[in-house]
Design goal:
Elements: E1 2-3, E2 13-17, E3 27-32, E4 35-42, E5 45-52, E6 64-66, E7 71-73, E8 80-81, E9 87-89, E10 98-99, E11 101-104, E12 107-110
Parallel strand pairs: 1-3
Antiparallel strand pairs: 2-12, 3-4, 4-5, 5-10, 6-7, 7-8, 8-9, 11-12
Bound molecules: FE2/S2 (inorganic) cluster.
Residues 56, 58-61, 74, 76-79, 91-92 line the site of FE2/S2 (inorganic) cluster (FES).
Length: 112
């Protein structure tokens, strides 16, 4: 899904609905202007919304969310990231970029 960037005055913008994150732990994947965003509920803290840029810091491939393993995995060279985007296995040396995220009136909002 592609969105144009139309943030509210507080900088947050809607990327989808709460319902899109069901069945738990579902994902929302969008492209806001040129920025890819993937949002999930944290598997062990479902009240926490996580919004990440899925671009792998190693060489720029897009990581995939593996819900059965509760981690993001890069298809190119196998880097792995925990549900908050923290690198847990190289060759990536940095975490995924995370954005503030929240739910409001059934919408999922992120601040890019
Ligand atoms: Fe992701 Fe190399 S681009 S591990």
């Amino acid at each position: 899904k592609r969105l144009e960037s139309r943030p509210r005055p507080d900088g947050f913008q809607a990327i989808g609905t709460v319902a899109e994150l069901e069945p738990f732990p579902g994902t929302i994947q969008v492209q806001v202007d040129s920025t890819p965003v993937i949002a999930i509920r944290h598997p062990s803290q479902p009240e926490v919304l996580v919004a990440l840029n899925p671009t792998c810091p190693h060489a720029g491939c897009k990581v995939d969310w593996q819900k059965d393993n509760s981690k993001f995995v890069c298809p190119c060279h196998g880097s792995e990231f925990d549900p908050s985007g923290k690198v847990i296995r190289g060759p990536a040396a940095r975490n995924l970029i995370a954005y503030p995220a929240k739910a409001e009136n059934q919408s999922i909002l992120v601040k890019l």
